[in-house]
Specification:
- With 557 residues, this protein is mainly α.
- It is built from 24 helices and five strands.
- It has a five-stranded mixed β-sheet with strand order 2-1-3-5-4, sandwiched between helices.
- The N terminus is likely disordered.
Length: 557
């Protein structure tokens, strides 16, 4: 009987229980153990077959021996109820963080998408420096209004959860997979580094969808999504490539790699054809070069060690703790995988470490702001996924302690989210939702002057999605926001274009900055030109300037 237990893969604790109950018949005792595994839906190995057959055999033995199975069923139901309750709590806490607010970059993203819906060409008619498919995705959200923005963010988090679950369910019990995927993963993904409505979450969702497809032997579709990822969030493409290639080679070898490459080439060709047909391919290449210059210059211009300065700008105690938590989860998974000879667990550990190294490299090359640490959420979720079987085994003996430890680990992996933020988010939920249906102050001020026309904008990225409500207007200058760290050429081109527009919106942020002499020169030149050539009205710090010679044609396009 002991040899049967050894070959069936049961935990050592169950073997000790069998020895302590020496007076019982070995078959009855073994049936109790197998029946317990069947009721809790655990014991299945990577292919999900061997453990299930053994559990079914155990149930048959339990029925024949006349043992009451009701306590086992009640225990399994309690475990399922606990997983559902933990998932509901996690989503209630995470949902307020998923509502996009139109401060800073999110407002620029929405304005760019609104101009796409108005018919402008990306990078040529309206400009921002992110990848094209991201703006198309935001344009789809704006087509359905504010509700579309919220639904899209929830949808992306749900894609991450479902993709992680598709992999986790092949590693451990369904109950443990549900906890890791639908309760712990949202805590990580919406953690302290997360900004709703930004570019990292779509890239993260595509990465985990790639993982799920390749894990289930669909390398062609994985390659397709890898190309989509590169056109949605390029800095995350190295992470997606590391995962896809590792899993594809492990699953299908050279044949799987060929299929993956074919999918990527086909999808990439389609994306290039789409951009070319819209007249956006050439401007996108220029935007790509500008983005490289921005990452290596801009806020860190003149740094002696750019890669070190990038890391210094994004480092924090929370990011250091997240990296340590990733390594701890990976170590736990390695120990479990080696002891149980689980190659699937070790492959996930490899993906975790590769994406972790790639994340650090990307941050060293392009990290500028704290929210760029969201790239660490990919290796963080992979670490949770790899440690899921070890968590499942521990949960059988110490359910409460295991769940509490896992939640704390998820909070740490997500950037040590301040628990005091949770009640603030919940109390401010109604106000945040209402703000999505409000027009920007700049929009209101411009519409008070006339209902249609052409305009340019001078100011930073504080526009609060000013383009909502202005689809009937024409944007004279593609770059409707400027940065104080912009180059002389960029600022001069922005001013020259704005001064040719019949109407100019001057934002509150169009002010001198003490440490930016080029920006201050730009502001001074603009103020002199506006005073000489325009008539301006002030609305709570926002100026709407109209050209004095109203018959002058707009030559900005």
């Amino acid at each position: 009987m002991d040899s049967w237990l050894r070959t069936s893969g049961f935990l050592p604790r169950q073997r000790l229980v069998l020895k302590r109950k020496g007076r019982l018949d070995e078959v009855v005792c073994g049936a109790r153990i197998a029946g317990f595994y069947a009721c809790c839906n655990i014991g299945a190995d990577a292919d999900g077959n061997q453990g299930r057959r053994e559990a079914e055999t155990g149930l048959t033995q339990v029925q024949r021996s006349g043992i009451d199975r009701a306590p086992l069923k009640r225990f399994a139901h309690r475990m399922d109820f606990g997983a559902v309750l933990l998932t509901l709590v996690a989503w209630c806490v995470s949902f307020p963080a998923m509502i996009p607010v139109r401060f800073n970059d999110r407002g620029v993203f929405v304005s760019t998408a609104e101009r796409l819906l108005a018919g402008d060409a990306l990078y040529a008619g309206v400009y921002d420096n992110k990848e094209p498919l991201f703006y198309y995705f935001v344009a789809i959200q704006r087509y359905f209004g504010a509700g579309g923005e919220i639904a899209a963010e929830v949808f992306l988090v749900l894609i991450c959860c479902l993709s992680i679950f598709a992999v986790a369910v092949t590693l451990c019990s369904r109950s443990a997979a549900a906890i890791v995927s639908f309760a712990l993963a949202p805590i990580v993904i919406t953690g302290g580094f997360y900004l709703p409505g930004h570019t990292h979450l779509p890239g993260t969702a595509l990465i985990f969808l790639c993982l799920a497809l390749c894990w289930t032997n669909r390398p062609f579709l994985g390659g397709v999504l890898l190309a989509v990822l590169a056109a949605t969030k390029l800095p995350l493409a190295p992470l997606g490539g590391a995962i896809v290639l590792t899993v594809v080679v492990w699953r299908g070898g050279g044949h799987g790699f060929v299929r993956c490459a074919a999918g990527g080439i086909l999808a990439g060709s389609g994306i290039v054809a789409l951009l070319y047909s819209r007249g956006e391919l050439g401007p996108f290449w220029q935007a790509f070069q500008d983005n490289l210059a921005y990452a290596q210059g801009g806020p860190i211009a003149g740094a002696r060690s750019p890669w070190l300065d990038h890391l210094v700008r994004v480092k924090s105690k929370a990011s250091a703790l997240a990296v340590l938590a990733i390594l701890l989860c990976a170590a736990i998974a390695v120990r479990y995988g080696v002891r149980r000879q689980r190659s699937d667990v070790l492959i996930l550990v490899g993906c975790c470490l590769l994406t972790g190294l790639a994340s650090i490299a990307v941050l060293a090359l392009s990290g500028l702001w704290p929210h760029h640490n969201q790239i660490l959420y990919v290796p963080a979720c992979l670490a949770l996924l790899a440690a899921a079987p070890a968590f499942d085994a521990w949960r059988q003996d110490h359910a409460g302690v295991a769940v509490v430890a896992a939640v704390l680990m998820a909070l740490t992996l997500g950037g040590a989210l301040d628990v005091f933020l949770i009640p603030q988010r919940l109390m401010g939920l109604s106000r945040t939702l209402a703000s999505l249906n409000e027009l920007s102050p700049e929009t209101i001020a411009l519409l008070d002057t006339r209902k249609t026309g052409a305009y340019a904008r001078l100011g930073g990225n504080d526009d609060m999605a000013h383009a909502i409500g202005l689809r009937a207007w024409r944007l004279s200058c593609p770059k409707f926001h400027q940065y104080p760290f912009g180059s002389r050429e960029q600022l001069h081109a922005a001013l020259a274009c704005a001064l040719r527009a019949p109407n100019v919106v001057v934002a509150r942020s169009f002010q001198p900055v003490e440490t930016r002499p080029l920006w201050n020169e730009f502001v001074a030149d603009a103020e002199r030109a506006l005073t000489a050539e325009f008539e301006c009205t002030n609305a709570s710090g926002i100026r709407i300037c109209r050209r004095k010679a109203d018959e002058v044609e707009d030559y900005s396009r």
